Amino acid sequence: MTATHTAAHAEDTEVRTAPAKTATPRRPVLDGRRLRTAGFHLSAGALSALWLLPIVLVLVTSTRTFDDIAAHGVGSRPHSFTLDGFRQAWVDGGQQRALINSMLVTLPTVALSLGLASMAAFALSRYDLPFRRVLLLLMLGGNLLPPQILLIPVSKLSEVLGIYDRLYALVGVQVGFGVGFYVFVLHGFMRAIPGEIQQAAVIDGASPWQIYWRIILPLARPALAALTALSFTWIFNDLLWAITVLRTDSQMPVTASLIGLQGQYVSMWNVIAAGSVIAAAPTVAVFLRFQRHFVAGLNLGAVK
Amino acid sequence: MALIGSARRSRATRVPPVVLAFVLVPLLAEGFWVFWPALQGFYLSLTSWDGLAAPKFVGLGNYSEMVHDAVFRTAAINTVLWLLLFGGLSAALGLGTAMLLQKERRGIGFYRAALFLPVVFSLVATALVWQAMYQPDGLINNVLEAVGLGGWKHAWLADQDTAFYAVIVPALWRQVGYVMVLYLAGLKGVDPVLYEAAKVDGATRWQQFRHITLPQLRSVNAVVLSVIVIDSLRSFDVVWALTRGGPYHSSELLSTYMYSTAFQSLRLGYGSALAVVIFVLAFGVIVSYLVRAFREAD
């Protein structure tokens, strides 16, 4: 939606400026414009370069040898190239296990929370339930709580349930904490689907489950795609819940394991940098692949 | 809309049980993992507890202890400072970059993506990237040396005077792109006719910004404000990964102090009381966010 909006915009300004360009004397306008364009690219380019610099640096550092870093300093230009840092982080540093743990937590959590959230959003937006607005805000409010207030009770709760230090506990708390926000966003989206579609289905004898599964869910696909991209990064990048309900190193997801790596490989910046690259790769991949959904998701979540 | 209205009466008579279950299952999940623990959290803040024996009720004892706790005072001041600096700068830089990268033109996608890319990194990875740059022999000191500012060289994270600010920078690096995206969407919603009318009236760039852009962005500003306050009070990962709140608590935030009090010193009652303080700070924003959500849900 935003894409078409901007396209229309761009066309609009084009049309309006075109006659002006021919009407005024040609050279000075062109020069002024060229100068401004150059100025824009110069400043935007410099800004982007500054922003990308830390990323380039970590990529470079991850491919240097330890001896090179020890001899020339972590801030010098590279004098070596090796993928040994990646091997160390992946095998000895336990990043492989950690990445698997992260995926074992993230994928079920995304699926479960969006599944549950879409059901609740469907019920709240398409049926006249009593207290529906109160319920909606209650669920959103739970997500806005600072997690700190929940840390101690959640860690004790998982102990009582016997799932402390198990990945289930992390999935459970992430679903419970995240679902309210997803319900709110999906509710806003599903509300806009015309009622006639549902009424036609009811007349045809469709059950609520069929309406949800065959009609509303497919229509809500853009919002679901956006939330999938967004929630994937949120859950994958989480540290706090992980270190609250997990203890053993072999259970830790990749963010927590990165902190372990930092303690284990002090000043072995090539290994630490390689670990960071490994930890960031999945979310960067999701972002590059689903960039549009991602940006749309951020704006969907913004309550105006 | 009218059709939904007319259909409402027939629906209100009987909501299918499966639809009730659709709401109740997620609500129970959230109740179990969020609402019930939150209530416990408030109760625990009134107790003294080491996590092993039964919690002992101490009334407001934990809160009166805070008054005399110098670390708490540092952490509270730092949290407010973090809110102002991190919040203010990410809003200003986010709006600035959004205005710079507002117009659709060649190469704009790349510039936007470059600024946005750090948003998808975990704060831990972000912290480690910057930790390498902050090292005594790292890039930042090398650059200072190269441009003749060798005297400014620092052990940025180990120095009490610089650690707090050194931690803010990576957090900002990651946040600006997020705020930029929110503002880009807001700027797209401003009617270009307004600017043209202003130009005809001879308004300067600054006047246009002051009297058109800012008022038109009012709703986005409210969003950004809530996002920033909520994110600031949640900030934990980046500090934890870079300094653990040190050296000498100089970069301590309430969130990190709460975590170390609870899970390292095992003072669970006092830790809960610290969490309640964070909740109180966030409360106003949460309520205003919900009020806006309430209006939107209408």
TrEMBL record, chain B:
Localization of this protein: Cell membrane
InterPro entries: ABC_transporter_permease, MetI-like, MetI-like_sf
ABC transmembrane type-1 domain span: 76-291
CDD domains to which the protein is assigned, alphabetical: TM_PBP2 (cd06261)
Domain of life: Bacteria
Gene Ontology biological process: transmembrane transport
PROSITE patterns, sorted: ABC_TM1 (PS50928)
Keywords noted in UniProt: Cell membrane, Membrane, Transmembrane, Transmembrane helix, Transport
Keyword tRNA processing carried by entry: no
GO cellular component term of the entry, any: plasma membrane
Residue spans crossing the bilayer: 18-39, 80-101, 113-133, 163-185, 268-291
Membrane topology per record: Multi-pass membrane protein
Family, per entry: Belongs to the binding-protein-dependent transport system permease family.
Name by which UniProt lists this protein: Sugar ABC transporter permease
Taxonomic path: Bacteria, Bacillati, Actinomycetota, Actinomycetes, Kitasatosporales
